[in-house]
Design a protein that fits this description.
By secondary structure, this protein is an alpha/beta fold. It is built from ten helices and 14 strands. Helices cover 36% and strands 17% of the residues. The strands form four sheets. A seven-stranded mixed sheet has the order 2-10-9-8-5-3-4, with helices on both faces. Strand 6 and strand 7 form a beta hairpin. Helix 1 crosses helix 7 and helix 3 runs parallel beside helix 4. The radius of gyration is 21 Å and the shape is globular. The structure holds 4'-deoxy-4'-aminopyridoxal-5'-phosphate.
Length: 361
C-alpha cells in the first residue's frame, strides 16, 4: 500500500487517491492514444471528449439549470476578482460587496479599481468570526450585483444559507466550498472557484454563469477577459489547462462514485463534527475562531489556549504526520482543511491526536 500523508492543506490540497492512481495509469498512454492528455492537441477528438464530458458531468452532478454556462478559465479565483467588475460593473452603476474575510477584501479592492464598489456589510470589527445576518446586508435594487464569499478559507466561516437578492444578481466566490454540499444554483447569477480545493489541481478556474446575466456583459472588454468569448467558444478560445481539466473530470467521476454531492456533504458534516466536537468538549483548551452558526465545514480554525503550547501542538502534529495544520500566515493559529477528498480517517486521526495532546498537557 502507498503511504499517504494526513493532508490538511488549505489549497492546493488533497486529491482522491483513486483519481491519482487512475491518472498515473493513463499518464503515458491515454486510452490508446500513445500519449498523455498533457501531450495532445486541445483540438483533438480525444481531448474534446474529456473537455465536453467534464462540463456535462459538473452540470449534472451539481444540478446546474439549463440556462447556465460552465466555463473553464485560468488565472485563479484572483483573476475573477478583476473579470467580474470588468464585465459587469458599468459606468454609473454600483456593486455591493459583503466583507467576510481577506478574500472578500481582495475582491472588493479590485472592483474599486474598475468602478464604483461599496461595502454591503462587514464582519471585520468582529475579527471575521461570523457571517452577517441577511437583514444586515445593505444593497440597492439597481446594483450591478452583490458579491459574497461563500466560504472564508482563512477565518473558517461559511454561509450556511444564501440570501435571496431578488432581481439583484448575486455573485459568489465559492473557491473553498464548491461542490461540498448541494446548492440552489438558481439563486446565483454567477459562481466562480479556483479548482485547487474541491475540484482538482490548481490552474483551472470554474465559472458557472446564468445566460441572461452573461447577455448583459459589457462589450468593451479585452477579448481574453470577456466571459462571452469563453462561453461562445466552449472554453476553447485559446489553449485551456488541458491536464487540469482532465483531472477535474476524474474528480467529478469520483464524487459520483461516492454517491454524489449529497453523500459527500453528509460525510463532510461528519468529518467536521469529529474535530469541532473535540474543540467544544475541551473546556477551553482549544477555542474555535468562528461563532456557532457561521462555522465552516471546510476550514476548521482554532487556537490552543496558550501560545507556547500552540507551538508545541503544531510541532508535535507535524511530527505525527499531519501536514498543513498551521493557520494562514496572516492570522496564525491552527487550521484543518477538510475538503471533499480528505478522508474521514484523516479527520478521525486529527481528533484523536487533539484529545491525546490535551490529555498530556
Ligand atoms: N477566494 C478564496 C475564497 C480563496 O480561498 C482563494 C485561495 N485560497 C482565492 C480566492 C484565490 O484563489 P487563487 O489562488 O486561485 O487566485
Amino acid at each position: 500500500t502507498v503511504k499517504r500523508a494526513y493532508n490538511l492543506n488549505a489549497g492546493p490540497s488533497a486529491l482522491p487517491l483513486e483519481v491519482l492512481q487512475k491518472a498515473q495509469e493513463e499518464l503515458v498512454d491515454f486510452k490508446g492514444a500513445g500519449m498523455s492528455v498533457m501531450e495532445m492537441s486541445h483540438r483533438s477528438k480525444e481531448y474534446d471528449e474529456v473537455h465536453t464530458e467534464a462540463i456535462a458531468r459538473l452540470k449534472k452532478l451539481y444540478n446546474i439549470p439549463e440556462n447556465y454556462e460552465v466555463l473553464f478559465l485560468q488565472g485563479g479565483a484572483s483573476l475573477q476578482f478583476t473579470m467580474l467588475p470588468m464585465n459587469f460593473l458599468k459606468e454609473g452603476q454600483t456593486a455591493s460587496y459583503v466583507q467576510t474575510g481577506s478574500w472578500s477584501e481582495k475582491a472588493f479592492k479590485e472592483a474599486k479599481v474598475l468602478g464604483n464598489a461599496v461595502i454591503a456589510a462587514s464582519t471585520k470589527e468582529n475579527n471575521y468570526k461570523n457571517i452577517p445576518a441577511f437583514d444586515e446586508l445593505n444593497y440597492n435594487a439597481d446594483d450591478a450585483y452583490v458579491h459574497i464569499t461563500s466560504n472564508n478559507t482563512i477565518f473558517g466561516t461559511e454561509w450556511a444559507e444564501f440570501p435571496d437578492t431578488g432581481d439583484v444578481p448575486l455573485v459568489a466566490d465559492m473557491s473553498s466550498d464548491i461542490l461540498s454540499k448541494p446548492v440552489d444554483i438558481s439563486k446565483f447569477a454567477m459562481i466562480y472557484a479556483g479548482a485547487q480545493k474541491n475540484l482538482g489541481p490548481s490552474g483551472v478556474t470554474v465559472v458557472i454563469i446564468r445566460k441572461e446575466f452573461l447577455e448583459t456583459a459589457s462589450e468593451n472588454v479585452p477579448t481574453i477577459l470577456s466571459y462571452k468569448t469563453h462561453a461562445d467558444k466552449n472554453s476553447l478560445y485559446n489553449t485551456p489547462p488541458t491536464f487540469g481539466i482532465y483531472m477535474l473530470g476524474e474528480v467529478l467521476k469520483w464524487v459520483e462514485a461516492q454517491g454524489g454531492v449529497e453523500a459527500v456533504a453528509k460525510r463532510n458534516e461528519e468529518k467536521a463534527a469529529l474535530i469541532y466536537d473535540v474543540i467544544d468538549a475541551s473546556n477551553g483548551f482549544y477555542t474555535g475562531h468562528a461563532v456557532e452558526g457561521s462555522r465552516s465545514l471546510m476550514n476548521i480554525t482554532f487556537r490552543v489556549a496558550d501560545e507556547e503550547l500552540e507551538k508545541q501542538f503544531l510541532a508535535e502534529a507535524k511530527e505525527a504526520g499531519f501536514v498543513g495544520l498551521n493557520g494562514h500566515r496572516s492570522v496564525g493559529g491552527c487550521r484543518a482543511s477538510t475538503y471533499n477528498a480528505v478522508p474521514y480517517e484523516t479527520c478521525q486521526a486529527l481528533a484523536n491526536f487533539m484529545k491525546d495532546f490535551q490529555a498530556k498537557h
